[in-house]
TrEMBL record:
Listed name of the protein: Phosphodiesterase
Amino acids binding Zn(2+) 2: D214
Record keywords, A-Z: Hydrolase, Metal-binding
MF GO annotations: 3',5'-cyclic-nucleotide phosphodiesterase activity; metal ion binding
EC code: 3.1.4.-
Cited InterPro entries: PDEase (IPR023088), PDEase_catalytic_dom (IPR002073), PDEase_catalytic_dom_sf (IPR036971), PDEase_CS (IPR023174)
Active site: H171 (proton donor)
Cofactor binding comment, as recorded: Binds 2 divalent metal cations per subunit. Site 1 may preferentially bind zinc ions, while site 2 has a preference for magnesium and/or manganese ions.
GO terms classed as biological process: signal transduction
PANTHER family per UniProt: CYCLIC NUCLEOTIDE PHOSPHODIESTERASE
Ligand binding (AMP): H171, N172, V173, L174, H175, D214, D321, Q372
Amino acid sequence: MKVPTFEIASILEDIKTRISAEDKEKLSWCISQLIESSGKTDLTTHIQSGNTYLTEETLSQIEQHSSLPLIRLAISDEEISRKSINRRISLSSSSSLDLEISLPSANFDINDFNINIFELAKEFGEATLLSIYAQKIFAYWNLFISMGFDLQVFLRYCQYIGEGYKPNLYHNVLHAADVMQACHVFMISTNIVELSEMIPLHIAALMLSAMVHDYKHPGVSNSYLYMIGDKLAIRYNDVSILENYHVSKAFQIALKENMNIFSNISKEEYRTLRKLMINAVLGTDMTKHPQHVSNLSKLSQNNDLKGEKELLISLFMHLGDLSNPSRIEKICEEWTLRICEEFFLQGDKERSNNIPVSPLMDRYLVNIAKSQIGFISGVILPFITPLCREIKGLDFLVTNAQANKEVWAGRINEFEEKIVKSKDQSASL
Ligand SMILES: [Zn+2]
């Protein structure tokens, strides 16, 4: 397992400011040992990605214990590749580092639902792409001005969140970016903002929720964490374990120095934003899906949407989270194969832990094409069809989902053969 040196060093640096001089010295030694025992590649990555917590002293420790050319490469403006966020690091009069972040220029159209996120990730890097998406979307909605988001603090927060996503096949930083972009397209494709009289705070709540909604996802489901008695299940009393974890962590990060994106809004606005975000992220728990479906009827009975902002934000968040089958075929296929393999990996873990293998997670039984037809017919279409009837401008979701269902129907045999192959492989092991 890769040790998150950056995070550990940051936490220790933070603790250093609150302890006695004697303990401070001991802690400094600990940090130097930590840095010394870490891989230099790891450190280089962390410096490249920016670290507002490493003090001058710690930076010099890194320089002492690491390969100098690598560190120089990491902090040199000229040599940082286009894939990395460009940062200028300069020492201010105090001992803290002043990091200025600027994103690479990116000319793609953030309003295009047919955007190829996988190609963009190759070009810009995954975590950086989340920041680019966020900057474009928040600029589109004028949130830097209306919400008083400081660009540098905002980008630092985005980058930290982006790097905190684990490299799962599906629940990774690209999924966060994808969902946020989907939510953005939904908002610009409909007149929901005008109809419900949303203000920037509501848009910010939706986009931030999407950005953080799977933060630090471990790649296994709530039921798996419950079954193994994971410490997260204990912490959150088995209730929406992951969703509670994601949103709680996201707010904890905003408490860190230089990452408080909420510093320029009033306490009341912060409380409202927090309530909306918690509600939206907790609403991504699939056990809440029937609630979202039944909420659709509220929209049809209630033409006055002004009082339904919280419901709409949560609904759009969930819709964004379920938008893969409504993307164009190529993108839909990539996400599908990724989530199925992540599910299969959980199935493998369940098998080896003598836990019943969850439905859809047994690689020796599940036909991916059939599972998708069932998912689109049984979950997606019954949700988005009435939704698109009530909220105008989203018909492309239904059209694409139906088209993808047809494509999967034509691939049943292909995926049946893959299951047989897997069984043969397991038998020969
Ligand atoms: Zn998600």
